[in-house]
Each structure stands twice: as structure tokens, then as C-alpha cells.
Amino acid sequence: MKIGIIGAMDIEVKELISSMVDIKKETISGIDFYQGKLEDKDVVVAECGIGKVYAAVCAQTMILKYEPDIIINTGVAGSLSTELRIGDIVISDGVVQHDYDASPIGIPAGMISGVNLIKIPCREELVKKIFKAAEILEDTNIALGTIASGDQFICSKEKKDFIANTFDALCAEMEGAAIGHVCYINNVDFCIIRAMSDMADGSAHMDFDAFVEIAVEKTILIIKNFLRN
Ligand code: SAH
């Protein structure tokens, strides 16, 4: 069993990489891939960069080159729900691309051509295991639901409400659904774990820098606990 782990930013993966042993590093298309052992399991960890294109390039390359059995995307996100405060966790049961939109020609917003789905589902068995691993966190609300991705940092009430209402999504970020899309067309199981770094509203840019570190720590704990079990 080999587990692929993708984070967009250095801060989201650096602690995982520094905990690995027997590391082999390779750079492909400008993305660093670290193969080795983490918590005694075979892993490949990559920092993909910000946004859906980088995320898709990274996931596809990881699948072809390293053949992971599953891919986990870890990182931070903006909360779309009043129930989810900064530091709380969302685990995906599926992903949507909120900026994939051919609605002017009569196609439902978010409908992905070819696969004909708006929400790309995760496999329940993997999601359940990750949810269980997340229960290690204390004083943290852990939610299961839709994660929305797009090439936009969401920081207005209008946009936040649009994504929450159109897709019934719990949080917004910029990579998860691209990784999910790539995994789906390659038959690789995937799950997204996101800790809330901001509320995706007017104050988001200020929240983001202040809370990103605290949020990341929580996702790292979940991943390590998942690997141990
Ligand atoms: N500081 C970075 C930019 C971060 S963009 C730089 O220098 O390039 C925000 C990152 O955090 C993305 O990877 C995205 O997935 C996630 N994210 C957190 N809050 C978000 C929000 N409100 N909207 C969209 N993405 C968000």
C-alpha cells in the first residue's frame, strides 16, 4: 500500500516531509516529489503549488510515476458554514469545482464535461477511516461533506453564499477538486482533509495569515494518526 499526499503550500507538507525516513527526492515539472516512509508506511509527498492546474499536474504525475493506491490532499480552506470556525476540520465525501460553469448554454453550474458529474464522490470506506483518524483532535468540530475548489481566494459574503448555496459545500479552497477529478478518471481513491484558516468573507485575508499555521498542525495530526492505524 502506497499513500500519496499532496499539499499546495510548503507550510502544508513541510512537517510531513521532515518526519519521513529513507527519502528520495525528484523534481518533475517543477514539483518536488518525496518518496519514503512516514509512520512506517510507504508514502509519496508533494507540494503542488496554488490552484487547480498545478494540483492536476501534480496528481496525474504522482499517479503515473509513483502509482499510489490512494491520494490524500491536505491543507487549509475558507469556511462556508457558520458551524465551522477557524481550526475546525472538513473531510470530503466529494468535491465540486465552483468555477466550472457552462450554465449560460443550459448546463448546470459545476457539471463536469465527460464524467457528467457536478460532485465527484470519494469512496466511503476511505472517508470513514480518515474521519476516525480525525477524532484524535480535541475541541475541534469535524464535519463530513462537500469541498468546493476554484481558482479564486474566496473573501466576500456574496461569493461565499453563492458557493455554499449552489453546491451545498462546507468549505472553499483551490486544489482539492482538481485532485479529485484526476483521481476519479484514473480510478484512484482520494480524500481531502482541510482545516479552516479563515471564514471566506471580508476579513479572510487577515484571518488567513494569522491562522494558517494552527490549522495546518491539525491536518498533520490527522494524517499521522491515519497512517499509524
Ligand atoms: N500565500 C499563498 C497564497 C495562498 S492562496 C501564496 O503566497 O501563494 C490560499 C491557499 O489556501 C490555497 O492553497 C487554498 O487552497 C487555501 N485557502 C484557504 N482559504 C481559502 C479561501 N478563503 N478561498 C480559497 N482558497 C483558500
CATH superfamily: Nucleoside phosphorylase domain
Taken together, the total number of domains comes to 1
Helix content: 25-40%
Strand order of the largest sheet: 5-9-8-6-10
Features:
229 residues; alpha/beta; Rossmann fold; five-stranded mixed beta barrel; 35% helix; globular; binds S-adenosyl-L-homocysteine
Can you offer a commentary on this structure?
Helix 1 (10-18) packs parallel to helix 6 (204-228). The two termini are 13 Å apart. This protein is an alpha/beta fold. A 5-stranded mixed β-barrel has the order 5-9-8-6-10, surrounded by 4 helices. It has one domain: Rossmann fold, CATH 3.40.50. Helix content is 35%, strand content 32%. It is globular, with a radius of gyration of 16 Å. It has 6 helices and 10 strands; from the N terminus they run βαβββαβββαβαβαβα. It has helices spanning 10-18, 52-66, 124-134, 157-167, 176-185, 204-228; strands at 2-7, 21-28, 31-38, 41-47, 70-79, 89-97, 120-121, 142-149, 169-173, 189-198. The longest helix has 25 residues, at 204-228. Residues 8-9, 50, 75-78, 153-155, 172-175, 197-198, 200, 204, 208 line the site of S-adenosyl-L-homocysteine.
